[in-house]
Amino acid sequence: MPTPRRLELIRAIETARGSRVLSYITGDRHGFETKIATDVFPFILEHLEAFGSTSKIDLFLYTTGGITIAASGLVSLIREFAGRFSVLIPFKAQSAGTLVALGADSIVMSRVGQLSPVDPTITSPYNPTMPHPVPGNPPQSLPVNVEDVVSFIKLARSEAGIKNEQALAEVFRDLAAKVHPLALGSVYRAREQIKMIARRMLQTHMTNGKEIERITTLLTRELYSHDYIIGRKEATEVLKLPIETADQRWDDPIWSLYKEYENVLELTRGFNPETLLQAQQRVTHTFTRAIIESTVATHAFQTVQEITRVQVTQPGIPTPIVGFQARVISENWVANSIV
Questions:
Q1: Treating both helix axes as pointing N-terminal to C-terminal, what angle do 146-158 and 165-178 enclose, rounded to 10 degrees?
Q2: Burial code of 268-297, b = ≥16 C-beta within 10 A, e = fewer?
Q3: Phi/psi at 202 (nearest 5 deg)?
Q4: In this predicted structure, what is the pLDDT of residue 160?
Q5: How many CB atoms lie within 10 A of CB 23?
Q6: Is the domain of 106 the same as that of 128?
Q7: 79, 80, 142, 325 from 73: Cα distances, Å
Q8: Of the residues 255, 271, 287, which one is the last residue of a structural domain?
Q9: Residue pair 101/109 in contact by the 8 Å Cβ criterion
Q10: Hey, which end of the chain has fewer CB within 10 Å, N or C?
């Protein structure tokens, strides 16, 4: 179950909005990031089945992104149980989180609520690797951003002034020499897939084909930076998404609930091993990295680490320096976890 304070806030939102509230929080604390993924579906199903068929479900969402097909699957799963589906965004609902919001009948954003362009990054065995790997470590794969590849071709056309097909073919061959052709193929497929998913999410509650295409194109093509932040005003006036008017009856408890989760997941705190160890040489600590929660239960994704203070000798330096080693003892979703 949630803590008494979180339970109180969830019930306050439910009472104010006449809904059932389901929280899905993926953390972005540096070194402990989590993302929207399909492994959460069985846990979310437990909450939804406990709700039963209900007129309205509010998804309280905080995330910097994740797997796009997981976002669309999450919307489909919730719609199996809800007559009306809304998303509550206290702060970040970026990338795949924005896709989830597109599938909602209405969106509640706080003053600092954020959506973002939907710009997938491809990771495959064919991705390029770091040019200067760390000695002794395996080569690190570099993610390929879909819009970066597309922008490279546009750069050649518009800025460099390359117009004829032969010169463009040379540009593409040079790109394919740096990025495996199969990785480039994945880029094209992902670009088309993300637009299809965004369109289908909007079609769950919109019928105006021109508006659906306009919103989809803006979010998947025309907002070039993945880091571009779409606030409440722009989401309402430019994108014309179904943003609900601010209402203090639920705005205040939504923000207070977010601050509770921020504290549990330590979202604003940098990780410092010295803080945990203090005078000890070794400690075992549990890091809560994601939460699924309602008045029914709490599921928490937790990593248990053993952290040890060690002496590290570096070549050419006679005096050892203090370092830290972290060993993962366990990593899994825990049902009814007290967090």
A1: 150
A2: eeeeebeeebeeeeeeeeebbbbbbbbbbb
A3: -65, -35
A4: 58
A5: 25
A6: no
A7: 10, 11, 27, 38
A8: 271
A9: no
A10: N
Residues 8 and 97 in one domain: yes
Lookup: tokens for 19: 């809904």
The one-letter amino acid at 324: F
pLDDT of the residue at 44:
97
Whether residue 105 is found in the same domain as residue 154: no
Which residues in the chain land under pLDDT 50? none
Whether residues 104 and 138 share a domain: the answer is: no
Is there a single domain that holds both residue 20 and residue 157? no
Domain end position, chosen among 251, 271, 291: 271
If DSSP codes are grouped into helix, strand and coil, which group holds residue 115? strand
**What does the pLDDT read at residue 187?**
59
Backbone angles phi, psi at 96, to 5 degrees: -60, -30
Q: Which residues contact 79 (CB under 8 A, 6 or more apart)?
A: 85, 103, 204
Give me the phi and psi of 77, to 5 degrees please.
-65, -45
Neighbours of 109 (CB within 10 A): 27
Percentage, residues of the chain above pLDDT 90: 64
**How many structural domains is the chain composed of?**
2
Cα 286 from Cα 245, distance rounded (Å): 39
Residue 338 counted as domain residue = no
Q: How many helices (H) and strands (E) does the chain have?
A: 11, 9
Residues forming beta bridges with residue 324, ordered by sequence position = 309
CA distance 119 to 338: 36
Q: Quick one: pLDDT at residue 240? A: 96
Spatial CA neighbour of 194 closest among 263, 261, 273, 96: 96
Distance CA 20, CA 18 (A): 7
How far is residue 333's CA from residue 46's CA, in Å, rounded to a whole number? 13
Say if residue 67 is in the same domain as residue 156.
no
| Structural domain span for residue 140 | 122-189
